[in-house]
Write a structure and sequence with these properties.
The protein is built from 19 helices and no strands. The chain has helices at 2-9, 19-52, 54-62, 64-90, 94-121, 123-129, 137-149, 151-166, 172-195, 197-222, 237-271, 273-289, 291-309, 313-346, 355-369, 372-387, 392-416, 418-451, 455-462. The longest helix has 35 residues, at 237-271. The chain is globular and about 60 Å long.
């Protein structure tokens, strides 16, 4: 049955086989998709900066933290909804698998509607609360308001992609994401010049909607083997509560983390549009560089979910260690690359005559890269914990990050200037790690007690190769 399902659906069982190989095979398509996603996000900024100027770039950049807080909440919810699906798939419990898929759809429709209406109403008030500079606030409002109207599209893609990933299919969502990225770039080139920042926002929302629609069509056809009946579409409060118990904490983790980013962004806004533009460009470069860490995190969530569903805790430890090794190696490579090519990357966003601005961008990129090992641990360990079913810990880790960024924004930046803007996220990563590593050890202890693992099973795991 298992091989049959994998053959006809493209899904992948992560509970059997060498963990390091499975992680690479599953994670590389995710990485490719994330790179394209960041690529088209960066293209937005490049086209805006080159065609519309520094103020327009600053306007788009000034919305980054609030964008992350709201859309991150939506994406986190969808990622959380995928965890019970992964656990049911790992346990080969197809009755509950269908119930979780159906009820994740009902829950997403309701949440998307509520969130879209709520944030759209208060967009301008939020920008004013962030002390967005007066010379860029109108463009910032136009851009982020359109992005918020596209929240249903964000839910659509991330829910369908999350379900497919939870079933072990990391390739299909990437294919559709690449196609939508190309659509985004084409629309940017067509719309930005005549429409300004609104064109960049419309291009982003439209491309997200395209990828979500295509992914939905594909999923409905490929999951026919589950044989959904009319009765399966019945709303189940029990399944919805389980889904929300996973999804809402993960969404809140993104939002709580983003609160610190909002505070830090407010401190940057007080410094003027030049610094806002520097952080905007530097953040885009750093986000691009961090794609492998995001891919590792998503991989760990699915890997952990399937293996805890199959009660293979020996494989959980093996997979975590293998992924951490990969993360450390990449972090060192990324640091070296940032040091050598950081200034050349800055020239993608600004003109070569803007020497001071290039220097700020370079400083931001290199300081962040110096702490990438800590970011690797944050993503790998946090998403593994979430995949194991302890998503509440994500909120606590998010609080650690929020506190660190808040201290940087409220205390350090006013006294020490831009260097502490650059150190805001690294401090957050370190604080989160101080919580997450002990938390993972505690979670594994609880699961071993729950599943009744004994010395024999652990001795068998010690003989397995990583």
């Amino acid at each position: 049955m298992k091989n049959f399902i994998a053959r006809i659906s493209g899904t992948k069982d992560l509970t059997e086989g060498k963990p390091s190989k499975l992680i690479l095979n599953f994670g590389l398509p995710l990485l490719f998709g994330l790179i394209f996603q960041q690529f088209y996000n960066m293209v937005d900024s490049v086209i805006v900066g080159q065609k519309l100027g520094t103020d327009a770039l600053a306007a788009v950049g000034s919305t980054g933290s609030i964008n992350f807080m709201i859309l991150g909440f939506c994406i986190g919810i969808c990622n959380g909804f995928a965890i019970p699906v992964a656990q049911a798939y790992g346990a080969k419990d197809f009755k509950n698998l269908k119930a979780y898929i159906i009820n994740s759809i009902w829950s997403s429709v309701a949440l998307a509607a509520v969130i879209t209406v709520a944030v759209s109403i208060f967009t301008m008030q939020i920008l004013k609360a962030l002390r967005t500079p007066s010379n860029i606030i109108d463009d910032a409002y136009i851009y982020i308001f359109i992005i918020f109207l596209g929240i249903p599209a964000t839910f659509l893609y991330n829910l369908t992609a999350g379900i497919l990933r939870s079933l072990g299919d990391s390739i299909t969502p990437v294919i559709f994401l690449v196609g939508s990225s190309l659509v985004n770039i084409i629309l940017d080139l067509i719309l930005v010049a005549p429409m300004g920042v609104a064109g960049a926002a419309v291009a982003t929302v439209a491309s997200q909607a395209v990828s979500g629609i295509i992914c939905t069509i594909y999923m409905t056809k490929k999951l026919k083997y589950l044989e959904f009946s009319k009765e399966d579409w019945t709303f189940s409060m029990r399944h919805c509560l389980k889904l929300c118990g996973m999804g809402l904490p993960m969404g809140l983790q993104y939002s709580i983390t983003a609160i610190g980013s909002v505070i830090l962004q407010t401190a940057v806004n007080d410094m003027g549009s030049t610094y806002v533009a520097a952080v905007s460009a530097g953040s885009k470069i750093s986000m691009f560089m961090c794609c492998p860490f995001d891919a590792m995190g998503s991989t760990m969530a699915t890997y952990g979910g399937q293996n805890v569903g199959a009660r293979r805790l020996d494989r959980v430890d093996q997979g975590l260690k293998a992924c951490i090794k990969m993360g450390i190696i990449y972090a060192l490579v990324a640091l070296a690359f940032s040091i050598v090519f950081g200034k050349q990357l800055a020239l993608l966003f600004v003109k070569k005559e803007q020497i001071e601005l290039i220097g700020y961008i370079y400083e931001f990129v290199v300081i962040n890269a110096a702490f990438y090992i800590f970011l690797a641990l944050v993503n790998i360990v946090r998403f593994m914990i979430q995949g194991l079913g302890y998503s509440t810990f994500a909120i606590l880790a998010g609080i650690c990050e929020m506190i660190a960024r808040s201290v940087a924004g409220f205390v350090l930046v006013p006294h020490f200037g831009f260097i502490c803007v650059s150190l805001g996220s690294p401090l957050a990563w370190v604080c989160a790690d101080l919580f997450l590593i002990p938390a993972y050890l505690w979670v594994m202890k609880q699961l071993r007690r729950k599943f009744g693992e004994n010395k024999i099973s652990r001795a068998k795991s010690a003989t397995a190769t990583i």
